[in-house]
Amino acid sequence: MDIFSNPVQYAWIVAALPLAAMIVNFFGFRMLDVLTRPTEAAEQANPDAAHGDSHDAAVTHDEEAHGGHGDDEHRDRTPFWASVVGWIAFGALVLAFAYSCVIGAQFLGWFGYPSNQHLLNELQSKGVTFHIYNWFNFGPLVYNIDFHVDALTVVMLVVVTAVSMLVHLYSMGYMAGDRGYSRFFIELSLFTFSMLLLVLGANFLTLFIGWELVGLSSYLLIGYFFSQQQPPVDSEVPWAPPAQVKAFVTTRLGDFGFLIGILLLWVTTGTFNFTDLNFNTKTSATGLTVALATTAMILVFCGAVGKSAQFPLHVWLPDAMAGPTPVSALIHAATMVAAGVYLVARLFPLYATVAGPESLQVVGYVGTFTAIFAATIALTQTDIKGVLAYSTISQLGYMFAGLAVAETNYVGIFHLFTHAFFKALLFLGAGSVIHALHDNGIGAQNLRNMGGLARWLPITAFTMLMANLAISGIPPFSGFFSKDLILATAYERGYLPIYYILLFTAFLTAFYMFRLFFLAFGGRGGALGGLWGGEYRGVGQPHESPLVMTLPLMLLAIPTIFAGWLAWNNAFGEFLTGGEITTPFVNPFGEPLTLVSTVVALVGIALAWAMYGLRILPVNAFTANPIGAPIYQLLKHHYYIDELYAFIIKYVVMGLSQGAYLFDKYIIDGFVNGLARFVRGLGSLTRRSESGFVQNYGAVLFGGALLLVIAVFFAAGVFTR
Amino acid sequence: MNWLLSVIIFLPLVGGILVLLLPESWTRWTAAIITLGVFALTLWLYFGLVITGASFGTVANPAWKESYDWINVNLGSFHFQIKYALGTDGLSMPMIILNGLLSFLAVVSSWHIEKRIKFYMAMILVLEFGVMGVFASFDLFLFFLFWEVELIPMFLLIGIWGGARREYAAWKFLIYTFTASAFTLAGIFLLYFQAGGFSATFEYLSSQIAQSKIAGTLPFFGAAVSLPLVIFLLLFAAFAVKLPMWPLHTWLPDAHTEAPTAVSVLLAGVLLKMGAYGLIRICLGFVPIGATEFAATLAIFAAINVLWGAGASMVQQDMKKMIAYSSVSHMGYVLLGVAGAAAAAGAFGAGTASAANLAEYREAALTGAALQMFTHGTITGMLFFCVGVLYDKAHIRDIDAFGGIAKRMPILTVLFSIACLASLGLPGLSGFVSEYLVFTGTFALLPIPTILSVFGVVLTAGYLLWMLRRSFFGPLNMKWSGLTDATALQTFPLIALTVVIFFVGIFPEPIINLLGPSMHYMVVSMQQVVSR
């Protein structure tokens, strides 16, 4: 069958699988789940079965104020039909992942098809475009839903389906017993489908549809606990209902620029098609000047800034933790934030060859600035997910810097690839910790209430240690290869400011990640100098998560440790670009430059060890002085950016809006009402002629209009012509 | 079937009389059956053409044509002729179908009304009659006649069944519309005589326009003003009020807020579209030179509409008033698309794909505007239905008075969210298609107003999601713990509109194919006139 001999031809199946699962679940099994649920009255009669805690709501449930049972409440067992929903969603993702791998194998030439080496090269370097269906055309202006599969798409397909599949599996344990279990899995399917649509899109129209649907899915999932009470402000835990709106509107602000960029390219080239735009755009032959192209690409990058949470639109991502932790893993690793990086990578030829160099410089400097900016904030956060959220923002900055400094897009994409695995692992690990501590109530996410957890959660602790080493860039873990590639490329291509800033950020990264690790899993009195186990500051008895949750952690640890080797001899780069990488491969282990970055990371780890593990340096060593204290406050409050935006919204946006409304109310309506009063005053003089019936007004109107016409005609000289 | 359009127009009128004659216990069913029958007939307008493979028609060659002499006066050199001429093309047919659908849903959603139900239903049916007439007329005077007919039932519906300030709102609606109509009538006479003074059928006018009959200048207190521009502006007066265009829009929030649910739906769904229809059909179609001269200004008004409406929506406490202002904002996209179609020249050097006069971009813009008329009708109709359900249950519409009611009304929450997402232009739902078309078309011609209007998309997301968040999400306000979800009868109109919104959003091809030929013809003939 063709489906196996030439799998790329059927790449749409990958996206269709989660979509089908979503539709079947929504109209079928979710309905059964809702209908077979015990009624509210029955649950109230048996409060023990219905009452419990959710992991992420992290809010003590006050029955009085809460007013009933909701989707965010926990029960002992997942109802049968709800678990069917989960299994169908998971099964669809397993198949989608398997098929993505099959497509990947074909790209590697393992299938003997295309049999011809030339055709295989063609496939690898250019990819294939498939027409799905047509929206409409206006002459040469074509609005199509098309898919395009090339090496970049294949990498994204594999990453998205792999991470999403493991998140599905993990969620079966994490969300077990939740009222909204079936809703959760339907939204996960939608999220995955949207992301797959985004990466499969062959033109701006298709990509933008996926892009916006990703935004919708994240809106739904961040707001999963839609009836959550507002957490206390000092808990640093974001509140779901405002967070979901913030995520959608902030990314939309980026989409505003993105859409203008699309329009600019569209009206000058007449196409949405990436292949045409990337490879056939000649600035001389179209209305597209270099200046316009540069402007357009910077505007397109605005969309990436929003979706990938770069400064200054990063504010939504830390709040997005309000969603259940598996969702955070999905958002931070494979979907949503990856979309912006993917977008720039997808349009890389336009950035690099058509637009002026300023466009990539903007990408690079925004990324670099965001990397260090977010890393400094991460130093001070005490919410375990908060640290991870700012580390994601920082790592995304690395990716953009990697895209900007290299000749091809593989440097940035390789970091996206490795980061997807270790960041998913970190978030799922954090989820496992929260799951272990959720009896603690409000503080379950706070690092202050942890410590020594490695003793109770050995699997979680060990896999998270692997991810920590990877993100810190310690050889031979995956993050080392990808981060080093970015640093080395920046250095060799002469982007020295970017190199030094990112190098320093690597130090910060290693420090704050191991700070997190020591605070959560290690501490005073632990083995190996406080690395493993130690004093526990929380209450109750933590417990390791069930296998359904630890299995994804162990599976993710494999690529976290080994995926970096894919870059050996430029293999990853050559796969992605479908050709030779011009820069010769340099063995990172034989490089003085590598030594520098590794030493820098080790210093960061050592400092964290000294402060939080061995405790030979006081924790407030840097903050208990007149210079450090205000800086600490500044970082702790995320540079007060949220406060600034709140101010702008409250006084500028709402002020202008209020102004518009008051103008309507008092100026326009004041004028109209005044006029009416004036006319009524006149009318009282001729009261007798006013009958109050509508038809009389009609007659007057007709006569008046006729008079008006005759006057105009006289003025126009119609009758005297 | 040469009488189908007549049946569609007059069946509601007959139904209205029937409702008044029959006993009150039959009122609801009679109205429902009549409106459902009319809706079925309007669908046949479409499917009848699809099945036979006939063309959907253009202004010069309408489908379902009917034409009879009505008034024919000859006074010396003056011919004054009004024909009973009907017809449809791609521009009017979606509006006729939409009117059929929304009138039926309006009757269904008014099931619970007790106050003078006979008269109420009769007025809804008379309103349907008037609106059908507006969209099906193919004679300028007949068009104007129907235009005025629609006023009376709407005035009474707001004035009798409205909220606390109903009389103010009803009079405001009436006076605004009437005053503007006077200018339009003057414009109609002027157009009629300038175009030859022989016939006022749309076919005749469009053939005359092709010969550039309307040109030159008009002495105006010593200054020379462009005659086409004068005619355009006179004609546009009533349409601008109806659309509504800033700063003539303040009747709309009042009328919407005070009107009963079903009437708000019809007001937003089809009555505003009469303004857009008149603008495209008459102003743009018959006075293209005037339209071109006014296009840049119109685009600025469009951007103001979009941003002003969105801003005013942001600060509303009353849900219905917020949606009313969002209508102002969304009708701005229609104005923008029309301005793009009429704009004098492109803003960028001609791209490889586009012809020198950017005809395809104009076509995209105009088709987007026409599609926006339809999508806004369904989406805003659905929003008003949702608010109506909530109001029936809670008897208030204050956004902040609710809180967390998603817990109690999961079905309404889902449907209300779908309507909001469609309104903010989420892909996969119909609003995105029309907005995207308007933007991709207009940007080539009027980039700055387009950029400003695109920003409206961000604001729309802001105020709609913020409203959902305040009313539906968050912890449940215990005051509403007794709230129950929408009933099956209340859900029915919402589901029906959801299906339409999804279908157009995912498969826009059929409706674009319906709109396409008319828009193409219009842009081509406009270009011929303007470039001459």
Lateral strand order in the biggest sheet of chain A: 1-2
Distance between the termini of chain B: 39 Å
Q: Give the SSE string of chain B.
A: HHEEHHHHHHEEHHHHHHHHHHH
pLDDT < 50 runs, ≥5 residues of chain A:
47-73
Which secondary-structure class do the elements of chain B indicate? mainly alpha
> Using only CA atoms, what is the Rg of chain A?
29 Å
Helix content of chain B: 55-70%
User: Please, what is the oligomeric state?
Assistant: heterodimer
Strand content of chain B: 5-15%
- Could you give a short account of the major beta sheet of chain B? 2 strands, antiparallel
Query: Which protein chains are joined by the largest interface, and how many residues does each one contribute?
Result: A-B, 82 and 91 residues
- In whole angstroms, the N-to-C terminal distance of chain A is 82 Å
How many DSSP helices of chain B?
Answer: 19
> How does the helix and strand content of chain A classify structurally?
mainly alpha
- Helix tally of chain A? 30
Principal-axis shape of chain A equals globular
- Give a quick account of the main beta sheet of chain A: strands, pairing sense, barrel closure: 2 strands, antiparallel
State which percent range the strand residues of chain A make up: under 5%
Supply Rg of chain B: 22 Å
Could you tell me the mean pLDDT of chain A? 83
What's a concise summary of this model?
The complex is a heterodimer of chains A (721) and B (532). With 721 residues, chain A is mainly alpha-helical.
Question: In words, what does this structure look like?
Answer:
- The complex is a heterodimer of chains A (721) and B (532).
- Chain A has 721 residues and is mainly α.
- Chain A is built from 30 helices and 2 strands.
- Chain A has a two-stranded antiparallel sheet with strand order 1-2.
- The longest helix of chain A has 45 residues, at 641-685.
- Chain A starts with a helix and ends in a 5-residue tail after the last helix.
- Chain B contains 19 helices and 4 strands.
- The longest helix of chain B has 36 residues, at 359-394.
- In chain B, a hairpin with a 2-residue loop joins strand 3 (217-220) and strand 4 (223-226).
- The model of chain B is unreliable at 350-355 (pLDDT under 50).
- The radius of gyration of chain B is 22 Å and the shape is globular.
- Chains A and B meet through strand 1, helix 10, helix 11, helix 29 and helix 30 of A and helix 6, helix 7, strand 3, helix 12 and helix 14 of B.
